[in-house]
């Protein structure tokens, strides 16, 4: 029923089963119209287009994101072309004359992993990386370490890109951490995939995400939710002067008092138009994050049923990371508890690296697009999937 929104991508790829949607989603058709709208606004308004973009589109987009994340103050949200730009601005709020002590994991996405290793190479930071495995004890081990040391910055993913493991209860997890450090959650694999409520967290954590994956707006529309505080990032752009410059002092750089404190400079905001269009489409058609999550769960279970039947020597449950999270367990009052909220929207198989590459190539030759990282073969699931049409017969 949801495929009607993706006709251009589906028509252009008629013989493809797209299981790489955790990496880059198909875009709904309305995003093409949004690109044209950006062009038309530019042609019509020319130099005055910024009032339309920053005065109308941006607040609307902030509100749509806030609705999805249950944020009470949409003005906390600031945009950037990528999350790397935002995390570097967060880094720049620290005293650069002191070595920063960071607590993170061994499973962060490359934007933070690479940058933090580079800082470490220059002896600018001390980093403790907690292994995510074994997953069953990760949250406990991470929290215990956070409360042992005096960290300046805690950085952790909501859903880990190399396994699909998700923090089981984000609020409970954050509440267990010390409140003095800067806390940043990489929510890229969580936003518009796993139901997320930041209403009690928005004032105290940085939350990074974007539209390239599950929000389906494509690359270039990333954002951060900024907590309470008068931050003054040294890596700053002139957009950060928009709004109330509550700290304007002669001879000093002023900053806005909301999320715009972390804004950059002039950029192509057509991506924000696309994100606005996709989120508006979902809102108009009552397609909530819960709707998407439940559809993906059906897709994942249908996929697992197929591979159970195939009994492939490699793509099977014994090589699936976190298979047990798809079980339903009983609570003390006999009410079923679904543990799949601890799992993202892709399934990850761990295999030897050469086998992973061989399988990815073989599947691609048969019109099955997947994604792999090292020894991990990943299958993603999306709203535009119809699980009853899955065909994995090439694996027989």
CATH topology of the largest domain: Aspartate Aminotransferase, domain 2
Under the CATH scheme, the architecture of the largest domain is 3-Layer(aba) Sandwich
Show unreliable segments.
328-340
Structural class: alpha/beta
Cα(first) to Cα(last) distance is 29 Å
Q: Tell me the number of strands.
A: 14
Largest sheet: 7 strands, mixed
Helix count, per DSSP?
A: 10
Mean pLDDT: 93
Binned, the helix content reads: 25-40%
| Beta fraction | 5-15%
Whole-number tally of structural domains: 2
What is the succession of H and E elements?
HEHHEHEHEHEHEEEHHEEEHEEE
According to CATH, the homologous superfamily of the largest domain is: Type I PLP-dependent aspartate aminotransferase-like (Major domain)
What is the CATH class designation of the largest domain? Answer: Alpha Beta
- Cα gyration radius (Å): 22 Å
Describe the structure.
The chain is α/β, with parallel strands linked by helices and 396 residues long. Helix 3 crosses helix 8. The chain has a 7-stranded mixed beta sheet with strand order 2-8-7-6-5-3-4, with helices on both faces. A 3-stranded antiparallel beta sheet has the order 11-14-13. The protein has 2 domains: 135 residues, Aspartate Aminotransferase, domain 1, CATH 3.90.1150; 255 residues, Type I PLP-dependent aspartate aminotransferase-like (Major domain) (Aspartate Aminotransferase, domain 2, 3-Layer(aba) Sandwich), CATH 3.40.640.10.
Explain the layout of strands and helices.
Blueprint: H1 7-12, E1 17-18, H2 30-45, H3 49-69, E2 77-80, H4 83-91, E3 100-105, H5 110-121, E4 125-130, H6 138-148, E5 153-157, H7 170-175, E6 182-186, E7 206-210, E8 222-225, H8 270-284, H9 289-310, E9 328-330, E10 336-338, E11 346-350, H10 353-365, E12 368-369, E13 371-373, E14 376-380
Parallel strand pairs: 1-12, 3-4, 3-5, 5-6, 6-7
Antiparallel strand pairs: 2-8, 7-8, 9-10, 11-14, 13-14
Helix pairs in contact: 2-8, 3-8
């Amino acid at each position: 029923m949801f495929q009607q929104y993706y006709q251009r991508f589906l028509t252009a790829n008629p013989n493809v089963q797209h299981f790489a949607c955790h990496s880059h989603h198909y875009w709904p058709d309305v995003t093409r119209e949004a690109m044209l709208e950006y062009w038309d606004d530019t042609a019509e308004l020319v130099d005055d287009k910024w009032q339309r973009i920053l005065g109308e589109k941006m607040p609307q987009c902030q509100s749509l994101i806030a609705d999805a994340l249950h944020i009470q103050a949409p003005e906390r949200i600031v945009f950037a072309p990528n999350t790397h730009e935002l995390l570097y601005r967060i880094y720049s709020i620290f005293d650069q004359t002191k070595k920063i002590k960071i607590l993170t994991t061994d499973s962060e996405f490359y934007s933070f992993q690479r940058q933090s290793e580079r800082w470490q190479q220059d002896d600018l930071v001390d980093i403790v990386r907690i292994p995510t495995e074994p997953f069953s004890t990760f949250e406990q081990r991470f929290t215990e370490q956070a409360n042992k040391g005096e960290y300046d910055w805690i950085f952790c993913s909501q859903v880990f890109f190399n396994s699909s493991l998700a923090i089981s209860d984000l609020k409970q997890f954050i509440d267990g951490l010390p409140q003095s450090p800067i806390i940043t959650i990489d929510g890229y694999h969580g936003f518009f995939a796993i139901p997320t409520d930041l209403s009690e967290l928005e004032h105290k954590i940085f939350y990074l995400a974007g539209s390239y994956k599950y929000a389906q707006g494509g690359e270039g529309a990333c954002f951060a939710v900024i907590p309470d505080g008068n931050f003054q990032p040294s890596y700053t752009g002139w957009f950060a002067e928009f709004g109330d410059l509550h700290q304007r002092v002669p001879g000093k750089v002023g900053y806005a008092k909301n999320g715009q404190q972390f804004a950059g400079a002039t950029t192509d905001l057509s991506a924000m138009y696309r994100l606005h269009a996709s989120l508006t489409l979902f809102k108009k058609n009552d397609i909530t994050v819960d709707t998407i999550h439940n559809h993906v769960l059906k897709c994942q279970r249908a996929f697992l049923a197929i591979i159970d039947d195939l009994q492939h020597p490699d793509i099977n449950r014994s090589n699936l990371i976190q298979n047990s999270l798809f079980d339903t367990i009983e609570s003390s009052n006999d009410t079923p508890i679904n543990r799949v909220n601890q799992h993202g929207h892709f399934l990850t198989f761990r295999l030897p690296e050469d086998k992973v590459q061989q399988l990815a190539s073989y599947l691609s030759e048969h019109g099955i697009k997947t994604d792999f990282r090292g020894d991990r073969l990943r299958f993603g699931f999306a709203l535009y999937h119809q699980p009853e049409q899955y065909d994995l017969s090439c694996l027989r």
